[in-house]
Amino acid sequence: MEAQWLAEYPHQAADNRPRKRPRLAWDAAPQLFPPPKAIPMLYCGQELINGNFTTAFLPPPPIYYAGPPRNLSPPWRPDDKDGHYVFTLGENLTPRYRILSKMGEGTFGQVLECWDLENQESVAIKIVRSLQKYREAAMIEIDVLQRLGKHDFTGSRCVQIRNWFDYRNHICIVFEKLGPSLYDFLRKNSYRSFPIDLVREFARQILESVTFMHDLRLIHTDLKPENILLVSPDTIRVHDYKIPIRPPKDGSVFKNLPKSSAIKLIDFGSTTFDHQDHNYVVSTRHYRAPEVILGLGWNYPCDLWSVGCILVELCSVSTQ
C-alpha cells in the first residue's frame, strides 16, 4: 500500500514523512520502489552524528542511481565472530572518511587511519565492537573525552576528539592523528631505553596530564606505555654505545629517538569518576597498584603507581 501511494503521488515531501523506526546509519538499506519514468530515483539515508540525525544525500554533481551509489560506502556485510567491523582498505566509512590503513586492534575494537574528505586531513577512527557492553563503554568514553576537551584549552594533555557517529551498529570515535605509542617505539627500537633526560621530560608531561585529570575528579585506571602516544612520528638516528649486541665494524651502535618529546594520553574507556564504585579490579597487570591486587580499595594513587612502573620501564635496558 505504501509503495503504491508513493508511485501515485511522487512529490518531494514524501521522502520526509516520519518513519516508524529511524535508521541509525546513513547507508541503511533503502526501500526501493519502482518510480515513474519521469521521476528519477534519489538514494538517501540518515546518519547519526553527535546524537542528531542528519539526512545524507549524494555529493554534487547531482547524479541519480537506481540503487546504492558506487564508490561511497561498501555493501552491507556482517561483522566477524567477535563483533569487529569488517572493512577493506580504500573503501569509505560514511561519505566523509576513507580508510587508509589499520593502526591497531584491541579488546574494544579497531583503530583505523582514515582520510577526512571534508577537512582534508588524516584522522584516527576507533571503531568499537558491535556488542552492547562495548557500545555503552564507548558512550562513557565519549562523555569523558568531551569533558577533558572542554577544560584542556591548549590541547596538550590528552588526545582530542574530533567527532563521533553510529555506523552500522558500531560507535565510531574520530580522533586527531598522533604518532606511535611509547611501547611501539620501544619495540621497534629493539627495547633500548630512552636517555634519562628524555624520560625526565616524559615524566613531567605524564604527571601534569594525570594531575589535570585528577583535578577534574577523573581516574584513568589504565596508564601504560601503550596508552601514551608521541605527538609526532618523526625520529632521529643517534649512536648508542651501551648496547654492544652484534656491533658493526666501526664499533658503534645506532638507535632511534623521537624528534619531539611531546606526548598525550589516550584510551579513556576505563576512566572512572572518584565517586563511582571502586570495588572492581583495574589497570593492566604489570602496572597494577598493590592496593588493587590486595583488594583494599583504590583511588587516585593507583594512577601514580602506574606512572612509576612506566618510568622504570622506559629507563630499563633489554638485552634480548
Strand and helix layout:
Layout: H1 2-8, E1 44-49, E2 52-57, E3 92-93, E4 97-105, E5 109-116, E6 121-128, H2 132-151, E7 161-167, E8 170-176, H3 182-188, H4 196-215, E9 218-219, E10 228-230, E11 235-239, E12 254-258, E13 263-265, E14 272-273, H5 290-293, H6 301-315
Antiparallel strand pairs: 1-2, 1-7, 3-4, 4-5, 5-6, 6-8, 7-8, 9-14, 10-13, 11-12
The gist of it:
With 320 residues, the protein is α+β, with helices and mostly antiparallel strands.
State the main characteristics:
Prot_kinase_dom, globular, 320 residues, CLK_kinases, 3 domains, Transferase(Phosphotransferase), domain 1, alpha+beta, Protein kinase domain-containing protein, Ser/Thr_kinase_AS, two-stranded antiparallel ribbon
Report what the structure shows.
With 320 residues, this protein is α+β, with helices and mostly antiparallel strands. It has three domains: 2-57, no CATH class; 92-176, Phosphorylase Kinase, domain 1 (2-Layer Sandwich); 182-315, Transferase(Phosphotransferase) domain 1 (Transferase(Phosphotransferase), domain 1, Orthogonal Bundle), CATH 1.10.510.10. Helix content is 23%, strand content 23%. It has helices spanning 2-8, 132-151, 182-188, 196-215, 290-293, 301-315, and strands at residues 44-49, 52-57, 92-93, 97-105, 109-116, 121-128, 161-167, 170-176, 218-219, 228-230, 235-239, 254-258, 263-265, 272-273. It is globular.
